[in-house]
Design goal:
single chain; mainly alpha; Rossmann fold; 5-stranded mixed sheet; two-stranded antiparallel sheet
Length: 561
């Protein structure tokens, strides 16, 4: 028990904490969740989220507060921006462990569930990336765990009331992180669960307690944002929830109903190949057990709910993974107790063959380029060698795992397989990806050329990165992203948009939208954009005094006369 606990803690530290600061921040998400908290810290305004000084009402405020607190503790860097996501994964794993140990048969299924959870590809990817899905999934997980503990408490007891209050509190925190969807997920899970348990009316009568706690949790900031920005709740509820759920705007991730099936299979790797073994085990479990029913509803109904939404992202189903890990652990435990062998062996063998095949094809492509593109360039040999080694390592442990006799040895060996690749992935990202997704290097190496009075013009795709790496919140935009169009509709922000070529040329010539007076004698202008975005100017831009560019980014500087 002691050794396995140390192993899991070490696993968490190596996979989730150690690599957080290794790779640069990626656009668009990580630079967004860097810049909004940075502007909060710089301005001292902790109520109204802003991006480039423009109102940004897509999310409530708690996720930004968590990242800002991390930045205050660790500095304004990549590690700090990703740290809340990693902590969210760790605490979620503890909640999974607590539920499984108490209600699923003790320490062995509990440590199995934690291992499955922490080494699932989607959990790991989001846990080392700065998006709000990690924190909101944490609060939903804690809410669900609190409710189940209340469900197992004696009716009318103070302990039950306290746990229901905790359920409402965590639902409130989830709401403050991502909005009304955080209430929808528990509801779509708990209603069918309580019907299954034949206790729905009991909780309808006591719903006032968690609901009151949830309202009290969200009320202070909700009132502050209402009095500061009277249109926030209309936009946030109607546009960001109702319209996006039913019919997302163009470009807002419309996907078919079945979209999350392949996402789930890929996101639960390497464990997806053991779904049949877990299924055969679950078939022999007593579905009168409350935790089994709870985990089924927790996984299935949110999964269907997100599938019914018109707008979909792979990260949305993260709250399903704690329940999936519980079901996998319980199913595999029962499977091995019943002396199951074939399904596990087939899964491990198939994983070994698949990863081995990918390793061979990957090496051949790097040598010959038969796929039409080589992910790694000539100077990145060490990267693709590590990637190939990780795949071979994964394949070898998958083959070896199905040959072992005891269930614990098999599962441990199977889980070790992808760890080398998972850990090294942060260090071996291809340069072509870094150039496209991490523009910070070019921006920061030219930062010394930009003074406090320099006018900055950027296209909308890069505005988050430009503001973050230059520590500015007053840039003009050539093309606005959909997420900023609402904020640009306000009178105090509409001049940030330069919709026409003439507007851009006027700024470069020394006239800003705020003034008709020429000021070129004391203000330089920096233009930062994608090369293809500059093609819209058809060569009309004047020759810059300085330029720097990569295949994916152009930096132009116009000095005052």
């Amino acid at each position: 028990m002691k050794h396995s606990a140390v192993a899991v803690i070490t696993l968490y530290l190596l996979l989730y904490i150690a690599p957080l600061g290794v790779r640069p921040l990626f656009i668009p998400d990580e630079t967004r969740y860097f810049e909004i908290p940075r502007e909060m810290i710089a301005s001292g305004d902790w109520v109204v989220p802003r991006l480039n000084g423009i109102r940004y009402f897509e999310k409530p405020v708690l996720g930004y507060w968590l990242i800002a607190a991390s930045m205050l503790a660790f500095g304004e860097n990549a590690f700090a921006v990703r740290f809340p996501s990693a902590v969210a994964a760790g605490i979620s794993a503890l909640a999974v462990f607590a539920l499984a140990r108490r209600f699923a048969g003790g320490y062995l299924p509990a440590i199995t569930a934690v291992g499955i959870f922490l080494t699932s590809l989607e959990v790991l990817g989001i846990g080392t990336f700065s998006v709000l899905d990690g924190p909101v999934s944490l609060f939903i997980t804690l809410a669900m765990a609190s409710f189940f503990l209340a469900h197992q408490s004696e009716s009318g007891s103070g302990q039950k009331a306290l746990r229901l209050s905790a359920f409402g509190f965590f639902c409130g925190l989830a709401f403050l992180t991502k909005g009304f969807i955080s209430f929808a997920v528990p509801v779509v899970c708990l209603v069918p669960f309580l019907i299954w348990e034949r206790r729905l009316w009991e909780y309808v009568k006591s719903a006032w307690l968690p609901l009151t706690v949830a309202v009290l949790t969200v009320l202070p900031w909700s009132l502050m944002i209402h009095f500061r920005e009277g249109d926030f709740w209309r936009y946030f509820f109607w546009v960001e929830h109702i319209q996006r759920f039913l019919s997302p705007p163009s470009g807002q991730h419309p996907e078919p109903f079945w979209y999350y099936i392949p996402v789930l299979l890929a996101g639960s790797l390497p464990w997806a190949v053991l779904f049949p073994a877990a299924y055969f085990g679950l078939r022999k479990i007593d579905f009168g057990d409350s935790l089994v029913r709870f985990a089924v509803c927790w996984f299935l109904f949110p999964f269907l709910f997100f599938s019914a939404s018109s707008g979909k992202l792979a990260t949305y189903i993260l709250p399903c993974f704690p329940a999936l890990s519980l079901l996998m652990a319980m199913g595999l435990r029962k499977y091995f107790q019943e002396n199951g062998n074939r399904a596990f062996s087939a899964g491990a063998l198939s994983m070994g063959i698949l990863t081995g095949f990918i390793a061979v094809a990957f090496v051949l492509n790097q040598a010959t380029g038969f796929a039409g593109i080589k992910p790694f360039g000539p100077s990145e040999t060490w990267k693709w060698i590590i990637a190939a080694t990780g795949l071979v390592f994964w394949s070898a442990f998958s083959f070896y795992g199905f040959r072992l006799k005891t269930a614990s040895d098999r599962l441990v060996c199977f889980g070790i397989g992808p760890l080398m690749l998972f850990f090294s992935a942060h260090f071996i990202i291809p340069d072509m990806t870094l150039v496209k997704k991490a523009p910070g290097e070019l921006i920061t190496r030219n930062r010394h050329l930009i003074g406090p009075d320099t006018i900055i013009i950027a296209d909308g795709d890069l505005i988050r990165a430009v503001c973050a790496f230059l520590e500015r919140d007053d840039a003009y935009m050539i093309i606005a992203r959909d997420e900023l169009k609402y904020g640009l509709s306000y009178a105090d922000s509409e001049n940030r948009m330069l919709p026409n070529t003439e507007d851009v040329l006027r700024v470069i010539d020394g006239n800003t939208p705020e003034s008709n007076e020429a000021n070129s004698e004391n203000r330089s202008v920096a233009v930062i954009a994608r090369p293809y975005k500059l093609k819209r100017f058809n060569g009309m831009l004047p020759k810059p005094d300085f330029s720097d560019q990569t295949d994916e980014l152009v930096f132009l500087l116009y000095s005052p006369d």
